[in-house]
């Protein structure tokens, strides 16, 4: 096997791929390794044999397998994974995937690997945002670098993930930090009012316009303008905004003469602007102007390891304003928080903790302090009380891992086998060995 591995590394395709992309692996549709470039061995610290399961190599026995989940479901992903170098040191490796079309309609993958900065698991505070997740630390590193570049930035993220905090970080770390920071939500106002708020108006432009009033574009002169929910901007205003970006001037409503403006635009959306362009709801030329630097904020459900840290920091803030003081979370309460999907993200977490401060008593947040909607996705409060928060050590780790992956895939054994890095037959045998149900066919 070692000879075969070395031959594979020395092949021209492997050298060409590494020359173009750096350390990389090529996978087939079954997520098996078919080609490895020379840099992979140095980066991972061990040789990757051909035919091995990529999820097993990269995820090991970890119960959290977002990389394996994404590959098995056919979705591209960027992830940061730990790779032990020694007993005392761990290297963080960034993995990016790109789909490779193959004959017969099947799909393989190209995995690009590189060493990631910020491998420490220690909590990090960055411009009001706390994390100990490598993915967020990587985002912080990128923000520090792009802040100095005076280019437009587009932040993509679900509601409540902290898009305005990212925009403020870009402003505060930039040469424009001494200038104004203006923010406007493009979804909060009807088109006619939004136009006046953005571009300003002159006296007599419309009924009620009693004086010249500058808009946010003028008020952000020599500073930063944050356009939240920019995908909601009406098409006619998109054309006017594009002209501002191209000419560095703004014409207020009712005016004829352009006014010079010098500002940086940071915009945000929870939608895909590319999809909005395809649907005819957003101008392609404006999208390319706004999307010079795209940033992606992960939702809270993908940052579950940050939940204890975020609860601790939010409670520390609330302890200064609420009569009740919370200094710890009951393990069962934390288990409920970790099971919830958090559609409202960190903003919803703050609301849940505010509810707990108002409803409960004492220094420990209990399950009974949490709002009812948190239990709609999982066990009732009574069930949670009797369920130990720690793993059931009476069951083998492999059995617990198989159960968890089957739950995530909705019982689809083909996807589960890919994620677990084993064949479908092996998965069936392990399920039978552990007494797990094998009677139903996979769901599609």
How does this model look, in words?
There is one protein chain. By secondary structure, the protein is α/β, with parallel strands linked by helices. The chain has four domains: 2-115, Beta-Lactamase (2-Layer Sandwich), CATH 3.30.450.20; 124-296, P-loop containing nucleotide triphosphate hydrolases (Rossmann fold); 302-386, Helicase, Ruva Protein, domain 3 (Orthogonal Bundle), CATH 1.10.8; 391-444, Homeodomain-like (Arc Repressor Mutant, subunit A). The chain contains 19 helices and 16 strands. It has helices at residues 2-10, 12-21, 38-44, 54-59, 66-72, 134-146, 163-172, 191-199, 216-219, 235-247, 273-278, 284-290, 307-318, 331-339, 345-359, 381-386, 397-408, 413-420, 424-433; strands spanning 24-27, 33-36, 78-84, 90-101, 107-115, 124-126, 129-131, 153-156, 181-185, 223-228, 249-250, 259-260, 263-269, 293-296, 328-329, 364-365. The strands form five sheets. The protein has a five-stranded antiparallel beta sheet with strand order 2-1-5-4-3, sandwiched between helices. The protein has a five-stranded parallel beta sheet with strand order 9-10-13-8-14. It has a two-stranded antiparallel sheet with strand order 6-7. A hairpin with a 5-residue loop joins strand 1 and strand 2 (33-36). Helix 17 crosses helix 18 (413-420). The longest helix is centred in the C-terminal third of the chain and has 15 residues, at 345-359. The model is unreliable at 1-9, 378-394 and 440-444 (pLDDT under 50).
